Amino acid sequence: MGHRFGDPSNPLLVSVRSGARKSMPGMMETVLNVGLTKDTISGLIKLTGNERLVYDAYRRLIMMYSDVVMEKARGQIEPEEGLGIRRQLEEIMDEVKKEKGCKNDTDLNVDDLKRLCGLFKERVKNVLKKPFPDDADEQLWGGIGAVFASWNGKRAIAYRRIEGIADEWGTAVNVQAMVFGNMGETSATGVAFTRDPGNGENKFYGEYLVNAQGEDVVAGIRTPGPINKESSSEHNKTLKTLEEIMPKVYRELFGYQKKLENHYKDMQDIEFTRENGRLFMLQCRIGKRNGPAAVRIAVDMVKEKLITKEMAVMRVTPAQLDELLHPMIDPKAERELKPIAKGLPAGPGGGVGMAVFTADDAEKWAKEGSKVILVREETSPEDVHGMHSSQGILTAKGGMTSHAALVARGWGKCCIVGSSSIHIDEENRRFTAGDTVVKEGDWISLNGTKGNIYSGKLPLVEPDIEHDKYFKGFMKVCDDVRRLRIRTNADRPEDAAIARRFGAEGIGLCRTEHMFFDPARIKSMRKMIVADTKGDREKALGELLPYQKEDFAGILKAMEGLPVIIRLLDPPLHEFLPQEESKKKELAEELGISIEKLEARMQKLHELNPMLGLRGCRLGITYPEITEMQVQAVFEAAAELTLTGVKVFPEVMVPLLGSQAEMKNQYVIIKARLEEVQKRYKVKFHCMIGTMIEIPRAALVADSIAEIAEFFSYGTNDLTQMTFGFSRDDIGSFLPNYLEKGILPKDPFQSIDRDGVGKLISIGIERGRSTRPNLEIGICGEHGGDPDSIKFCHSVGMDYVSCSPYRVPIARLAAAQAVVESKK
Amino acid sequence: MGHRFGDPSNPLLVSVRSGARKSMPGMMETVLNVGLTKDTISGLIKLTGNERLVYDAYRRLIMMYSDVVMEKARGQIEPEEGLGIRRQLEEIMDEVKKEKGCKNDTDLNVDDLKRLCGLFKERVKNVLKKPFPDDADEQLWGGIGAVFASWNGKRAIAYRRIEGIADEWGTAVNVQAMVFGNMGETSATGVAFTRDPGNGENKFYGEYLVNAQGEDVVAGIRTPGPINKESSSEHNKTLKTLEEIMPKVYRELFGYQKKLENHYKDMQDIEFTRENGRLFMLQCRIGKRNGPAAVRIAVDMVKEKLITKEMAVMRVTPAQLDELLHPMIDPKAERELKPIAKGLPAGPGGGVGMAVFTADDAEKWAKEGSKVILVREETSPEDVHGMHSSQGILTAKGGMTSHAALVARGWGKCCIVGSSSIHIDEENRRFTAGDTVVKEGDWISLNGTKGNIYSGKLPLVEPDIEHDKYFKGFMKVCDDVRRLRIRTNADRPEDAAIARRFGAEGIGLCRTEHMFFDPARIKSMRKMIVADTKGDREKALGELLPYQKEDFAGILKAMEGLPVIIRLLDPPLHEFLPQEESKKKELAEELGISIEKLEARMQKLHELNPMLGLRGCRLGITYPEITEMQVQAVFEAAAELTLTGVKVFPEVMVPLLGSQAEMKNQYVIIKARLEEVQKRYKVKFHCMIGTMIEIPRAALVADSIAEIAEFFSYGTNDLTQMTFGFSRDDIGSFLPNYLEKGILPKDPFQSIDRDGVGKLISIGIERGRSTRPNLEIGICGEHGGDPDSIKFCHSVGMDYVSCSPYRVPIARLAAAQAVVESKK
Fold it and tell me: Distance (Å, rounded) from C-alpha A619 to C-alpha B803?
């Protein structure tokens, strides 16, 4: 620049900025105009011939420096609103402006600014008990220290938590020569993006201010103008564009931005300043963008051959892709309001409806055409019909893997759980949240992506991904890159169809137990459970057979040509029995037995730790007739479809296995029934018989299990429970404390614990393939929809992941990213 | 022998006998006198000049052959009592004897025997629809086939189950020349042991019969005489000894038996026959013996330098050693009776007392001087005082690792659990078992070693191992051989003292929770649990501190000079709260809170799967003040003892750990308190801080845990629960079926599952020692007292096993056997 820092006759001013590996816009501190002292002020005035510029710079330096260096960095970080030194200096400046009748900062003249600097220094000394330093070196080192210190500021830490940036990275500090956009009407400053960060359109997009420093653009003291017609909006369309008033500068800038984007091969966020006639580029960094923009930019850049497909898949985060998939509460409407309560964001998207407090009401109201939100303490399988009828689900209890959360995510339904600040009064059909009382029928709105609850009826914005060419194009790019196949967890043909539209390549988990909760079937199910003899049990199972067959036919047809893994009955039988006294009485009457007998039978089924009791394959081994009925239903459905020309690929999965002997026991039963049905129908269809690996022992003895099982599917929910010794239902009493104290880095039910559970998974894969090299291995726990976990599944060599229908696109993306990351 | 098989003029007769690897006395079939046909009969008569002998042999052949070969081996195995061919032939013989007025078989003359043979053959043909074969070869091959077939006879299979003999071993068949002890008054036959199998005394011990075949000695048709004075008993003391009537034969025999024992280096069970003047040794095999005999023989043979110490430890099975440790129901009294019911043998030994049906009654009656047996559906920690007051415990529910079983074994108390055929009517204070009704106060007797329940008061036989020089000598031999150290699980100074007398080298597990059930303390414990604030909790903990300190002082003193591992509070808090309404009310009053508040707090503590909930170190992390109080009590006790000159080695163990972070959290708390106490008391004592490995994840990340933990103790009860996904409390619904179907080879809670749990243990040891090579590793689960599991612990390189006090001698033996077996 031809100047020297601290030289009284030819002074250089510098800015001190952060330089983190990943941009954290607005989260780190900056100090501008460093180097102005009594001595250099006069030198700079002589040099620039612009006294006003110099005092404007000096008052800016005092404001920023006293705030960032003298106050925050000295441990008085983030004082209460309105009490900080900066706020006090701003008030002084507002007073002076008011006194002078000025509207804009630029209206203040040199004398005003000189007076202001004096007032500022006096206040700083009074409040911070230290004079503003009049030494260039002291200013510089102070600034450097403060920028480093701001890495550990509250805001920066919070931002890193959200963005997953490691604390250990730290920041660089950049010391950069100052240039002045505030040197008069031939000077200007601005920020711009090389593409539109709001929708990804390939247009140069930005704002500028004449006679200003960069911070003025961000601060919004004056309304900045659009740099070109493409950038103009409602907000600024009356203002002249940079292209109009400084066409030469604009053309030069336009050239630079193209060059920068081509160099960095990504959309750039740039800062520029014109000092008198000369254009300076101050900064450029990867530009932040929202989900739709990220997708469009990635797809366009591949088309433009600017980036490869592998680079493209890294340009969209799973969270950004998720933005495209759910109807959202209109962000504009939401911006105006304060939530009445918050909870855990268990099912993304928006839900708007009238509050109801029982599942039966939800179903009834919905049938009558009302939109409802089901509000419950927590949900149980008996609530499922009501949950399905609702626009969204809100619970006061439960975590991210509670019943409500699991069911809602499976359906892509908006859901907020564990909102502990709402108090439900079910009897009087209302809940309170702070001062707000929400009665039955009152409208409420849920933002399930953020966990915010609003009273009233907020507008929704619907996604239309099926006609979104960028979404589809991006998915194609992901598919070209990924190795993992993506299946879905779906229990009903409707869900299977949705998942297929989202790109699912099969069903990784079809649970058969949800099918039994239908009122028409639950009676037979309950009869089966309370049966005293094998004969009675078989009779009740016989009643269930046609229903099961119909279910399987529906789902196999919806997935024509693709594999469908059907899991045999898994949950403990008591889950199917009613809890309420009235329902028990009803059941006893229906079954024609005494209430005492029913209760005795229920008592017998009671378990101290039901998760580790009679469930999974232990049911099918203890009562082989259950397995027989279920596989007969699967195979008859498959046979009949095959006869009508539908290609089906059922796979039967034995749950909760811990040993080869269990696998053998069930395999023999299944295989016999398969051969019997194929012989009876005179058809052939392919059917693999495999197992879930969800008990630690199963992973440890996987070699012997794989001698019989033809596929493995990791049930990571249960595997995590048993590997940690955590009951998902009961960890509420200590998990929050564990996360807060950092004893657990994250909830292991949300993202696979690589060190423990992951090790067990690796052992199981290695041992399983040691005896059956072509063993098909996948995952069907909740983790199958978690990007980090999907990357883990790729790294250990699984064949597929299976997730809920609405997570399929996310999984396709994560699987593609896994390929790229594993090459690094 | 100079004869030829089937040669009419010079015939050889043979016996066909089994030859299994391990002797199965009486369980396999034998056929004697094979080769007698019309042709060879006359030849043999000519050869021996003894027609009576030949027809006696012939009738024996027909009896045995028709039974063993023609009936049993042809699938009509083990016919109903009284219907078999043998029984029918015996009846014919009895009739003939009656007719002739004979008392003994030997009183029948040649004609009688000839007639008998005719009658026998006729009956055989009529009943078995096949004539008795008159062909020597056919007889031989028939016999060989039948002996092979008897390997799969019901008796043989049952015996193998009990003795742990593998089905795959199979048997050899020996074809051996016949000699005849029934050739007249100069012939004889007998069986003998080289030492007394009843007490191990080094004396030649046996019985003989003149003019008889070996089977007659066993069958007890005539009373055999003692071979020498040392062998005479009440039973046969009036009879002449072999030594007296055939002194030369006896001397020859005596020489042989010494030679055989010296050759085989073990006590021999021999069969001999004198045919006219010549002595034949028919068979010798390792002699069966009872526990005391096994121990004495082993010790004596080491002293005699016949065997090494390593050989000696293999000569006593853990079950035999166990016989020495418990008061037993007098076997003579038991032999006369049929049990009224059976159950699982959970606590060995005998227990005799009056039936009571509540723990309070048990305690009350016992205080009044009565001996009682506590009879419960199942027991809970609230019953412990009553269990302790009882002579034995009987439950209708529960398995080998139920609460009752664990507590009883810990105290060496007789216990039978899961006796499903008894029906308890607690209200009317009685139970029924079949037709027997046992009312409160009625005497019953339990054989806890076998699981038999008798009505009435049976006599007990008490062991006195402290003055048993053979027991002590044998233990010394074991100690010389073993590498594993043996500790004990003991919660009270009394138990610690018992264990020490049994040879325990420290305490491997001192559970602190049992201490809280004392009525004087439970109130403070409950106050702590229902406390709303940290302050209230600390106050209640403060009340517990002196009790805990006293407990620890007692146990540290009892174990002076030896390490004592104290485990921090482990069980879920709700276990300490009362279950009954009346007790709840009482508690609420005592605590001065409303019953509603109490119930609300209890409801909050309720968990769906308490085994996987808030317990173990999760308690100490959530409420650090609990850990602080406990370790303060330990360290103050240790400091005060040290000041009085008692050498103490406390070790603090953190339970239910799954990660390094948990270990770190507790380590910091414990270490700080240790330093504080040592500084305050101005003493130094050594204290390791370590953890239990009982969660699968802990084994998988053992390398990182061992960076902090100074010792590992495997809690194989919980580790087995979580590795299998089995809740011990709930497996009753499927475990019996699993064992019956062979899906599980054995109950994994009794003996370590080497394939699954064992693999995890190995992984944990390997990883743990990878970061801390001198890591002390032991086991403190119930498996620590199981000989097979102890051998596993040796093989994977553990430093010690810890078991209940009464299992310590068994563990010392098993540890020694492990050394020998691992060298093979």
Answer: 35
- How many CA within 13 A on the CB side of residue B414? 30
Three-state secondary structure string covering B258-321: HHHHHHHCCCEEEEEEEECCEEEEEEEEECCCCHHHHHHHHHHHHHCCCCCHHHHHCCCCHHHH
pLDDT of residue B733: 84
CA distance B417 to B348: 12
Q: Cβ neighbours of residue B519 under 8 Å, at least 6 residues apart?
A: none
Picking from A611, A661, A742, the nearest residue to B612 by CB comes out as A611
Partners of B733 on chain A (C-beta within 8 Å) are 607, 613-614, 622
* C-alpha–C-alpha distance, residues A522 and B739, integer Å: 32
Rounded to whole angstroms, the Cα distance separating B231 from B225 reads 9
Rounded to 5 degrees, what angle do the CA atoms B703, B704, B709 make? Answer: 90
What's chain B's average pLDDT?
Answer: 90
- At residue B664, the pLDDT reads 97
- Of chain B, the percentage scoring pLDDT greater than 70 comes to 96
Residue in B with minimal Cα distance to A764: B756
What pTM value is reported for the model?
0.81
Question: Quick one: pLDDT band at residue B183, thresholds 50, 70, 90?
Answer: confident
pLDDT digits (tens, 9 = 90+) for A292-349: 889 999 999 999 999 999 999 999 999 889 878 888 898 888 887 889 998 887 777 8
Q: What is the mean pLDDT of residues B535-563?
A: 94
CB pairs under 8 A between A and B: 168
The answer to whether B690 and B652 are in contact (CB under 8 A) is yes
Q: Of A284, A414, A617, A780, which is the active-site residue?
A: A780
Chain A residues in contact with B723 by the CB 8 A cut-off are 695-697, 700, 722
Q: Is A687 a catalytic residue?
A: no
B756 contact residues in A (CB cutoff 8 A): 658-659, 696-697, 700-701
Res. B401: pLDDT tops 70: no
Give the tokens for residue B611. Answer: 């085994």
What are the start-end ranges of the H helices in A224-290? 242-245, 247-264
Suggest the residue from A700, A701, A752, A762 to mutate for an interface test with chain B (most B CBs closer than 10 A).
A700
Q: Taken in order A795, A801, A804, A809, is the CA torsion positive or negative?
A: positive
> Quick one: A678 exposed, middle or buried, by C-beta within 10 A (0-12, 13-18, 19+)?
middle
Candidates B622, B665, B730; nearest CB to A612: B730
| Nearest residue to B443 (alpha-carbon basis) of B426, B457, B429, B433 | B457
* Distance linking the first and last C-alpha atoms of chain B: 40
Smallest Cβ–Cβ distance between A609 and the set B700, B727, B755 belongs to B727
pLDDT digits (tens, 9 = 90+) for A348-393: 789 999 999 999 999 999 988 899 999 998 887 678 778 888 999 9
Taking 50 as the threshold, does the pLDDT of residue B575 lie above it? yes
Interval A570-577 mean pLDDT: 89
Contacts of A733 in chain B (CB under 8 A): 607, 613-614, 622
For chain A, the distance separating the N- and C-terminal CA atoms, rounded to the nearest angstrom, is 40
Reported as a pLDDT band with limits 50, 70 and 90, residue A633 is very high
Are the beta carbons of B804 and B412 closer than 8 angstroms?
yes
Mutate to test the interface with A, among B380, B618, B625 (most CBs of A within 10 A): B618
Rounded to 5°, the CA angle A359-A362-A363 comes to 90
CB contact under 8 A, A756 and B610: no
B609: left (phi over 0), alpha (psi -120 to 50) or beta: beta
Q: How confident is the model over B264-319, as pLDDT tens digits? A: 999 999 999 999 889 999 989 888 887 888 999 999 999 999 999 999 999 999 98
Under 8 Å CB-to-CB from A571, ≥6 apart: which residues?
Answer: A513, A615
